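User: My advisor asked me to double-check a structure prediction for Proline iminopeptidase before group meeting. I don't want to rely on an old file, so could you generate it fresh from this sequence?
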Amino acid sequence: MKTKIILTLVILFFILSCVEKPKNSVEPQSTKKSSYFDYSNSDDQVTGGINMIPIDTKKGTFNVYTKRMGNNPKMRVLLLHGGPGGTHEAFENFDGYLPNEEIEYIYYDQLDSYYSDKPNDPSLWTTEHFVEEVEQVRKALNLNKDNFYLLGQSWGGILAMEYALKYQDNLKGLIISNMVASVAEYNKYAQEVLGPQLPEEVLKEIKAIEAIKDYANPRYEELLMTHYYTEHILRKPLEEWPKSIHLMFEHLNPNIYIYMQGPSEFGITDEATLSDWDVSDRLKEIKVPTLMLGATYDTMDPKYMEWMATEVQNGRSVTTNGSHVSQFDDPETYFTGLIQFIKDVDNGSF
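Assistant: Sure, here is a fresh prediction for Proline iminopeptidase from the sequence you gave:
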């Protein structure tokens, strides 16, 4: 009798095990999971990826702000913001695109920018200082030639080119976003191409204000914001600009900005320290894989940026349909080009 019962139970178990599982049944999750957002057991776990990195300068040691987003030992991108004196906030929509590709990226506010220490010492406001600052950040974050991509936008592009010309052996890839290799070319494009595109009466009023150097005049900012910024900085009505861009402008350090760039938005003024900056003849020295990210409506000549990609030894050019912060007004082209470049370099197909 016991034998029959046991045999019946075995047959019943076999039949039940062969019954097809309901389609809505939950399968056990794979034991393999991404470590991209795993900050456990890392030194910066308690700060959420933030590291205040000490920078040695001739005027003492100061701390700069960095924040690591994600983990990927093969693809790590350090972001150099514009200005000078801008902030990492201009890059905050990278959160919407790079994590899905598991590309690690690092926000960084340069010395005298909002989230970092502000010694407010003009003797530190040189490209030479900032190149060495980037190098100290690189070492502190353990970035190296096997994983280190450097992305510089606007003034950050100047800094990235200068860094590559001195330290390119530390790089895996270089990205220059919205910056030409010559201030003279930048000024020429602003004055000969972009300025005349403004309504005649607007341009006349702007030039009159600049002629007497009345840059603090609220009317000057009003004219630029209404007629120039919405065409060539971010091609959206001001009320549609993202909060991160408004914050970047609110947090901009005007002292370093005016000292290095000057008060005008139609090129870099003669008294500014960057007024004669030009490395166009040295682009051919850059051998590391390089992406030039230009934009049709940028303050920088997109054709000149395409030419820059032919001057470096191993270049590629992508031109978006956006403006100076084209990561916001043409993100599809911008991030597609950026991600493809990083992955092509990573897998050796570039």
